[in-house]
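Thread: quick sanity check before group meeting

JM: Hey all, I'm pulling together slides for Thursday and realized we never actually wrote out the predicted structure for the chain we discussed last week. Dropping the sequence here so it's in one place. If anyone has concerns about the input, flag it before I start.
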Amino acid sequence: MLDLLDYRRRVFEMYRAVREGGSDPAVCAQFRRRRDELFQTHRQSALDAAQKAAFRGLSYYDYDPAYRVAARVDTDVEPEILTVELDDDGHFAYRRFAQVTFDLPTGSGRLSLFWITGYGGGVFLPFGDATNRSTTYGAGRYLYDTIKGADLGAALAEIVLDFNYAYNPSCAYNPRWVCPLAPPENRLPFPVPAGEKMYN
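JM (edit): ok, ran it. Output follows.
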């Protein structure tokens, strides 16, 4: 348990630096170096021992400030609850509480924001796009999971969507993990060539 606490503290600190650094590519480069270090050395890494031994770093698109936008949070949505069974982790429920619309170089999109309904709650933003199964993980990626520290910056009326920090769920690295994935409403029809690419 203390290993997990240490891991989460490190992730929280990494995202704090991102929020303070804004669109600075050097901040993103440092974030990626620190993430590689966690993956290769930490006991709570998503990788198993054999994967750690062969690990040479995660693969990313180059940082592109055009894929960082601030979007208005629209809370006038139907608050539907979605549920997923996660094997050993049990029942995972998350409730739609808002939507955001945004413009990127490759298209204009809309994504739902979800609130994880477990103890304490947290913002959860999974998404899919047209790069899935070609250059990125086929089941989609995450942008926010504030319970685990992935927080790019949000206020009551606005949220930062920096797709340069889009990352794979744990199940992208090893089949021992089971992850909640992007629902159909969060699958964008255009590519988002930013953030983490497919593992291996």
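AS: nice. Residues 2-186 form one domain. The chain has three helices and seven strands.
JM: adding both to the slides.
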